[in-house]
Amino acid sequence: MNPLIFVIALLTILDVSIIRTFVFNDSENIGYNIYELPRIYEGDLVFRRGKSIESYAVLKADGSVRYSHVGIAHINKNGDCTVVHAVPADNKTENKVRIEPLSDFWDYDNASAGAVYRLKLNNYQREIIGNYVKRIFNEEVEFDGAYDLHDTSKLYCTELVRNAYQKCNIDILSGNMDTLYFPKQIPIIFPGTILKNKKIQQIYSYTNN
Length: 209
Known about the structure:
Blueprint: H1 3-11, H2 16-23, E1 45-50, H3 53-62, E2 69-75, E3 81-86, E4 97-101, H4 102-105, E5 111-118, H5 123-138, E6 142-143, E7 154-155, H6 157-166, E8 178-180, E9 186-188, H7 191-194, E10 201-207
Parallel strand pairs: 6-7
Antiparallel strand pairs: 1-2, 1-5, 2-3, 3-4, 5-10, 8-9
Helix pairs in contact: 1-3
């Protein structure tokens, strides 16, 4: 059984009103101001707190940060910021790594909060990361719903980040790894696992509530 789905199943027996308050909060949209955004570079880490039950499960299982998902900033040929990220299929998209504009990644329907974090990189390292994520997208690599770090043919969001930085011989996890204990014990990388790296600096954040 998919371990994260098992967590979700457990959450359904909790107070439904608590889950609905977290996931379906219809408070006024404050959102991010595009004019307040600092310059975003290739390879920056773009986080969001999702509104789905799956996002709630990640946050509960992680417990260390406010973000449930992460992607890698990619600056396209027009100079626009896009986000490369691995997410499961929904009713609009396929079950594979995707590239989408930052505005879509942080769309109010998808995110109740977001942030950009940065590890200091040189231009060569940024180019390596950019080439890697473009290749992964072009190869249509599927989302890893089993969260299996030993399966290199599929990726989940934080695994994509780890692998991209490994191409530059950088351990973005700074030696950290977390564990999911049920239904079986497996190593897992949460968004919070990445943010344990003290060299990563937040350059922007926003919240919708």
